[in-house]
Design brief:
heterotrimer; A alpha/beta (208); B alpha+beta (668); C mainly alpha (178); A: 208 residues; alpha/beta; elongated; C: 178 residues; mainly alpha; 6 helices
Chain lengths: 208, 668, 178
């Protein structure tokens, strides 16, 4: 037995096995976005689906991110051909409605799709409470480093990307993120209305 | 019913293999030849059982028995029968069944052919095969069980992945790949058998496994080329190789196996490199398992990767077992394998083989390191990086060019001595042709160094290797007065391995020319056309005639009829399509390719207007691409020539030893 | 059509999961209606329309096209994961290519364009890792292996040729020629 050779070989094999074992615990398809923590890329996009009630923005309006300073922004990229978008639609729509009147703007961004199909899809899904804008040429999607749909970006009141969610979101996730971002905004700049909103937070956070 | 039959067969097969693998060594150690027969019986029984299970699964697929989980996963009533059958290897679980079946078949054939051989080499090889089979059975009853019950039984299923039912090559490439990939287990088993039985010092394991190795190599070569073809015909980007981890996984063992096919000649002739060859073969098998691990575990993102569960951990454990056992066996036997190295001249056939092995080994490591680097970088830096085509091209092109050159020099060098003055006569014609090729490439407009070198060495190697045939045959023509055809066929059949090798070299030249030309001179353009409008790429004019739609059983098709014009005459009609499958709401682009010897016109339908008023097509002129497929055929022909048994020497040959034919020619 | 392969895989796994769970794919039926109903229909989204900023002259400028191509082959398509944005027929890849072209046309250097994509997608977007720092390993190892191997070969060939030549006819075995 040539122990020297055996041990040299074993010494090279062990780290490789170790590396693989570690690799198995990772998801190769989840690629971290460099955006969180950075200034959110600005955009000016036209509304094609107005939304409902209080949250409504007339179709044809231009939504500018620069006008949304001071509010938390939830940017949801979606498409009518996207299966997973169906899973999150109701949750997003309901959560958005429940925040009506608070400093939060929910915005759908149509990704690689035609507005007509998007409108039809919304009708088929039973409506959407918040407005959706069209992103022709996916320029904004690329600016946000989009990999696919659905992806949801949470921007804080100062216009930074705070968090990115890949895949369908759940109501709990959206509420938690929105609440903590609103709380952070209040903490930074306390205002008379702060008390009401802050009071709503713990309750909202528990919703599953 | 079918489900139970299929599953129970695997369970019984697992028990049989486990028994064989455990009791086999006992029998061999006790020297009980009669017990060894039971070991062999276990191998045969396993084959029968796995065959039953595989056939049952195929029957389940064909009869749309959706109570079987695998059928419910990949089956659909609308899928044509051909694609239903081949969906056997379309997803993870089925591919493991198929793998187990191919392995069982190899094992049974190996044992049957060698069943009468004395000594412990074959029994130990059989045990090794059983252990590998056992691993796959464990997968089949564990993490990759395709035979789980489904309740309630669905009425219909989603059908196979649209990409896998979109082209007939899907019925060709995977079986070839498995035959090659799995076949490499056989020489590995012989190597293990040699080490376990202590028969490692003689070359029996090499001789017994020679044809299996060559056949597996031939299958693997064919599979890689067929895979390139599939990717070219189906994926719509006009390329054939993207250095995707799955492609690399099939390429890695091919590289070491090719190195082995060369270096083993040095061992057979000079008794050297015994330990190295053993390592190469063990490494080749390890790379097949590693490659499977990489593609089945989901550890590395790849376009072809199957979705997975815990199967990665099983593979990792198996890799660990293989590594540990082979390392210790090789280390334990390394003293017996010590061989005295002797070279008669620094420049001879032997040194050409040594260089060949250096390049192939480094090639393999380069591809391996590149494939694994994203994982390493993430572990070390916590950052995801990509290692893709530009990297692999940059790093491996020098090696490819060097190997192409060596392929021309090697056959011209004599064994066991420095080349004499005849070397010039062998190399000079090649050099002239090579320079002509390179000049043609320069005139055609390339200034890429590797491209020019590739043409230079391709021309050079082509002439040198063809020259070996010409010289040998012409010597026979003069010595025996045979006709050229007879002389050539006798020359080849008298020394099949040598001329099989040269044939393979010629195949490589064709592949190299196809790759060099198509990557250097490819031209493409995207155009939006109205009916009657034309687009011209590289001097080829295409006219858009009309767009159409039709419904087929399992899909809906949108197509564009394009006419390849030759003046006013329509030279060919090309119809790129988009296929819509119900399981995917994105269309599967289905390019259409018209092959000519000079190159292909490759059309891909990118978009169309609803009313058919315009279409957007991508037109690619792909020079010499069919030469790659042709080269693949020649490579396989080379492997076949090498496998066929040597022709018995004709009486006439023996009586009048000719001055020139096979054995002396090339090594005067 | 976004990346077809990744997408179909995802769809299949979803569908397979459903099928195994026993809920028939029928439940998915509304989602499966994307295929055209006999007649011609738009292929989903509108194709890339180069957004405003390019003039007609720029659109057909072969120099710009070549520069775009040489940069596009180095950028990884986010939805295909193996292919470059030059090779991928997917929608997003084509749009990214259009962005590359626009930015080049606006006078940005290739490195600036690359950095734009790195700032959006991370280093991952480069198909060839930057040759610096830790990444040097993947570039240097093969080179070191060739050099080391070559040195070793020279050493071994010298050593073996120094051994007294084998007397003629005493080769271990007359195996086959090649």
């Amino acid at each position: 037995m040539n122990w020297k050779r055996a041990s040299i070989a074993a010494a090279t094999a062990a780290p490789v096995i170790g590396l693989f074992a570690w690799g198995l615990t990772r998801d190769p398809n989840s690629i971290p976005s460099p955006l969180p923590g950075r200034e959110a890329p600005v955009f000016a996009l036209q509304v094609f689906a107005p939304g409902q009630g209080e949250l409504m923005r007339p179709a044809g309006d231009t939504v500018r991110l620069t006008d949304l300073r001071g509010t938390v922004v939830v940017l949801n990229f979606w498409a009518s051909w996207c299966l997973a978008c169906r899973d999150e639609h109701a949750a997003l729509s309901d959560v958005a409605r429940s925040y009506a009147g608070q400093p939060v703007q929910f915005l759908g961004v149509l990704y690689n799709d035609v507005p007509d199909k998007g409108t039809a899809w919304i009708a088929e899904m039973g409506g959407q409470s918040y407005p959706s804008v069209d992103d022709p040429g996916a320029r904004v999607a690329i600016d946000y480093g989009l990999y696919g749909v659905p992806e949801t970006f949470f921007l804080d009141a100062t216009g930074r990307v705070a968090y990115k969610h890949t895949g369908p979101v759940t109501a709990a996730v959206v509420r938690f993120k929105v609440d903590s971002l609103m709380a952070a905004a209040l903490h930074a700049a306390p205002s008379p209305t702060a008390a009401d909103t802050a009071g709503a937070n713990p309750k909202a956070g528990k919703v599953q | 019913m079918t489900r139970l039959l299929a599953f129970d067969s695997i369970v019984v097969a697992l028990a049989v293999t486990a028994l064989g693998a455990i009791l086999g060594p006992v029998a061999v150690r006790r020297g009980r030849r009669d017990w060894v027969m039971y070991l062999y019986a276990a191998v045969y029984t396993n084959f029968v059982l796995v065959t039953v299970s595989t056939l049952a699964l195929v029957y389940g697929l064909v009869s749309h028995d959706f109570s079987i989980s695998y059928v419910a996963q990949v089956g659909s009533r609308a899928t044509p029968t051909f694609y239903t059958i081949i969906s056997l290897w379309g997803a993870l679980e089925g591919s493991i069944v198929f793998w187990a079946w191919v392995l069982a078949m190899y094992a049974a054939a190996v044992v049957w052919i060698n069943r009468k051989r004395e000594g412990n080499l074959v029994p130990y090889a059989a045990i090794t095969l059983l252990v590998v089979v056992l691993f796959f059975h464990i997968l089949l009853v564990g993490p990759a069980n395709p035979f789980q019950p489904v309740f309630p039984v669905p009425f219909d299923g989603p059908g196979p992945n649209p990409l896998l039912q979109n082209h007939i090559l899907m019925g060709v490439h995977p079986p070839l790949l498995y035959l090659g990939y799995v076949g490499l287990t056989v020489p590995f088993a012989f190597a293990m058998g040699a080490m376990l039985s202590g028969e490692v010092a003689n070359d029996d394991w090499i001789r017994l496994s020679r044809r299996w190795t060559l056949a597996s190599w031939g299958f693997l070569t064919a599979a890689i080329i067929a895979g390139m073809w599939w990717s070219y015909e189906v994926l719509g980007w006009g390329g054939y190789w993207a250095w995707d981890p799955v492609e690399n996984a099939s390429f890695l063992p091919w590289l070491t196996c090719t190195a082995y096919l060369h270096s083993v000649l040095v061992q057979e002739r000079r008794g050297m490199l015994k330990l190295w060859n053993l390592n190469l073969m063990v490494g080749t098998f390890t790379l097949t398992i590693l490659g499977t691990f990489l593609t089945r575990s989901g550890i590395i993102s790849s376009v072809h990767a199957f979705t997975t569960g815990t199967i990665g951990y099983y593979f990792l454990a198996f890799i660990g077992v293989v590594l540990v056992s082979t390392l210790f066996l090789v280390a334990g036997n390394s003293d017996k394998l010590a061989s005295e190295g002797r070279l008669d001249a620094p420049l001879s056939r032997e040194t050409a083989f040594l260089l060949n092995n250096l390049f192939f080994t480094v090639f393999m490591f380069t591809v391996l390191i590149g494939t694994l680097f994203p994982l390493v970088a993430e572990a070390a830096r916590g950052v995801k990086v990509s290692v893709g085509e530009p990297f692999f091209n940059k790093m491996t092109l020098p090696l490819m060019v060097a190997l192409l050159f060596l392929m021309g020099v090697g056959p011209a060098l004599p064994w066991k001595k420095a080349p004499g003055p005849e070397l010039r006569g062998k190399l000079l014609p090649g050099l002239i042709v090579g320079v002509l090729f390179a000049a043609a490439a320069l005139v055609a407009g390339t200034r890429n160094v590797y491209s020019v070198l590739a043409f230079l060495f391709a021309g050079f190697s082509l002439v040198v290797n063809v020259g070996e045939f010409v010289r040998g045959a012409s010597a026979r023509v003069t010595a025996h007065g045979e006709s050229w055809i007879v002389a050539l066929s006798r020359l080849v059949s008298g020394n099949r391995r040598r001329f099989g090798g040269y044939t393979a070299h010629i195949g490589v030249v064709f592949v190299a020319l196809g790759i060099a030309a198509s990557s250097t001179f490819k031209q493409e353009q995207e155009a939006t056309l109205r009916p009657g409008e034309t687009v011209t790429v590289a001097g080829h004019t295409l006219r858009f005639k009309n767009a159409w739609g039709r419904e087929e059983k399992q899909r809906q098709v949108i197509g564009a009829t394009m006419e390849w014009m030759d003046g006013d005459r329509v030279r060919a009609v090309i119809e790129p399509r988009m296929n819509y499958y119900p399981t995917s709401d994105q269309p599967v682009p289905t390019p259409d390719v018209r092959n000519t010897l000079r190159g292909d016109i490759y059309l891909n339908l990118m978009a169309f207007r609803q009313d058919g008023s315009t279409v957007t097509v991508k037109v690619i002129w792909e020079p010499l691409v069919p030469w790659i497929w042709l080269g693949g055929l020649i490579l396989c022909l080379g492997a076949i020539i090498g496998i066929l048994p040597e022709r018995k020497r004709l009486a006439g040959d023996r009586r009048t030893p000719s001055p020139a034919p096979s054995l002396t020619e090339g090594q005067p | 059509m976004t990346d077809v392969r990744t997408f179909t895989r995802t769809v299949l796994s979803v569908a397979a999961g459903l099928a195994i769970a026993g809920s028939v794919v029928r439940a998915q039926a509304p989602a499966l209606s994307a295929a055209p109903e006999g007649a011609l229909q738009d292929s989903g989204a509108p194709r890339v329309k180069v957004q405003g900023t390019l003039t007609d002259a720029q659109k057909n400028d072969p120099v710009l096209e070549a520069a775009t191509r040489s940069l596009a082959v180095q950028l990884r398509c986010p939805v295909c994961q193996g292919e470059s944005i030059q090779d991928s027929p997917s929608e997003l890849a084509q749009q990214m290519r259009a962005v590359v072209k626009e930015q080049l046309a606006s006078g940005k250097s290739p490195d600036e364009v690359k950095n734009y994509f790195i700032s959006k997608y991370g280093e991952w977007v480069l198909l060839e890792p930057k040759a610096r720092g830790f990444n040097l390993i993947v570039y240097m190892l093969p080179v070191l292996l060739v050099l080391g191997g070559a040195v070793f070969l020279v050493y071994i060939v010298r050593k073996w040729t120094a051994v007294a030549p084998v007397p003629a006819g005493s080769t271990p075995r007359t195996g086959d020629e090649e």
